[in-house]
């Protein structure tokens, strides 16, 4: 009972298949399992939806096209034609984060089994953010060479405060991976905790106050839990969207430095 | 596995930060799954979707162009048809007016001929009438002198002088 009510328990990583390679613990965990499930879901969906491509699309093909068109449109809006090579990257970032966020929202009808949100851990979101910023830096240096560092030197700033503006720019650039990773991690963690706490409030009320508690829990708390659940679904999508569009914005800096 | 899990379930733990020992595993599996998703999407499915979208675009543009060409053809056909009609109408008008002119000419000619014939007949008839009248007039003098001679004979009882009667009649008729 206490374990089930502990709002942090859902973020616990348990090793399903423990193994080590070269002294590193690379066990297959529940987090790994849900990353694999999410990725296989996206691949399976696209394999199924694009199995029979037609000029007049089927419903699934339409959905796949909307999914692709959503990312393609986003990249086109932010990066224009230069962004075309990065569509698969932004698509993968969005889809990965989206399914990882989303699948943690469901509960399983099996006793003892529960879903897991890989994006509720800083290791995953931080690695994704560092990877994204790494791509931005590599692309920036590769496309523009040393001109890439112009992003730290805004044009039209008087010389006597330029050093200060540059400091701010460098600081803002360095904080990007942190904010990118932290935002996603904190949103998923916080949302899930809030959901669990409010949901756990209902049995607590029932246990403490009996029938009255059940009534209060059912009438007052339950609608709120339903509302928060809906909100969490929105957040799951929104955070994936935010991650993707920020990637586009940062890539735009790499493609066109000197704003 | 069980011992480690128990240590964290004792409450007050914060798995995202406490389970630092799982970071390599998380990042390792993130790299594998993310990489898998990227390569499968980038090289298999996204090109497929992109191609389908582009194909649809070309199909739609092609159909629109085809429709425009057909519509232009139809417009041209209508124009050609209208000019044909106008030509035909002009030809019909020409034929009609020519026919009318011919008919008019023939009517005028026949009218003239008939009028000439009639005029000739009229002249002839008038000449005949005049001749008959002249003859009749000549006869009248004789009849008148005969009648005058007979009247004189009846009144006087003696035969009248033929020559005097004749000159008197001729005087009375005004030398006619």
The N- to C-terminal Cα distance of chain B equals 175 Å
Extended strand count of chain B: 0
The tally of structural domains of chain B comes to 1
Q: If strands are numbered along the chain, what order do they take across the biggest sheet of chain A?
A: 1-4
Query: Most extensive chain contact?
Result: A-B, 56 and 43 residues
Share in β-strands of chain A: under 5%
Task: List unreliable stretches of 5+ residues of chain B.
Answer: 1-11
Span from first to last CA of chain A?
Answer: 56 Å
Given helix and strand content, the structural type of chain A is mainly alpha
Helical content band of chain B: over 70%
Count of helix runs of chain B: 4
How many helices of chain A in DSSP terms? 7
Share in helix of chain A: 55-70%
The helix/strand series of chain B, from N terminus to C terminus, equals HHHH
Domain module tally of chain A: 1
Structural class of chain B: mainly alpha
């Amino acid at each position: 009972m206490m374990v089930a009510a502990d709002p942090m328990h859902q973020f616990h990583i348990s090793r399903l298949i423990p193994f080590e390679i070269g002294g590193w613990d690379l066990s297959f965990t529940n987090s790994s399992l849900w990353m694999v499930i999410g990725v296989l879901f996206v691949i399976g969906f696209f394999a199924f939806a694009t199995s029979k491509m037609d000029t007049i699309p089927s419903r699934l093909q339409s959905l796949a096209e909307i999914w692709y068109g959503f990312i393609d449109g986003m990249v086109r809006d932010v990066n224009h034609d230069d962004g075309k090579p990065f569509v698969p990257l932004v698509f993968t970032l969005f889809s990965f984060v989206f399914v990882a966020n989303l699948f943690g929202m469901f509960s399983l009808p099996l006793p003892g089994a529960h879903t897991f949100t890989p994006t509720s851990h800083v290791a995953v979101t931080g690695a994704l953010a560092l990877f994204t910023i790494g791509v931005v830096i590599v692309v920036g240096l590769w496309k523009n060479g040393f001109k890439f560092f112009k992003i730290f030197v805004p044009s039209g700033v008087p010389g006597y405060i330029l050093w200060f503006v540059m400091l701010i720019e460098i600081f803002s650039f360095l904080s990007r991976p942190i904010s990118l990773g932290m935002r996603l991690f904190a949103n998923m963690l916080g949302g899930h905790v809030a959901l669990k706490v409010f949901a756990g409030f209902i049995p607590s009320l029932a246990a403490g106050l009996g029938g009255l508690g059940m009534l209060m829990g059912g009438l007052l708390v339950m609608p709120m839990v339903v509302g928060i659940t809906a909100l969490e679904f929105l957040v799951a999508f929104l955070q994936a969207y935010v991650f993707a569009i920020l990637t586009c914005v940062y890539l735009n800096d790499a493609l066109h430095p000197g704003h | 596995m069980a011992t480690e899990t128990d240590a964290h379930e004792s409450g007050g733990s914060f798995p995202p930060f406490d389970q630092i020992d799982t970071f390599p595993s998380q990042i390792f599996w993130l790299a594998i799954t993310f990489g898998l998703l990227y390569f499968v999407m980038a090289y298999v499915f996204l090109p497929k979707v992109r191609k389908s979208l582009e194909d649809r675009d070309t199909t739609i543009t092609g159909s629109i162009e085809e429709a425009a060409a057909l519509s232009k053809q139809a417009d041209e056909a209508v124009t050609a048809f209208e000019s044909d009609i106008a030509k035909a109408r002009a030809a019909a008008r020409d034929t009609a007016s020519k026919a009318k002119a011919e008919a008019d000419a023939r009517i005028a000619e026949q009218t003239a001929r008939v009028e000439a014939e009639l005029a000739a007949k009229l002249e002839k008839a008038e000449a005949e009438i005049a001749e008959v009248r002249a003859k009749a007039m000549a006869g009248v003098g004789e009849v008148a002198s005969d009648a005058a001679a007979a009247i004189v004979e009846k009144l006087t009882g003696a035969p009248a002088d033929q020559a005097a009667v004749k000159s008197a009649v001729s005087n009375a008729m005004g030398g006619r």
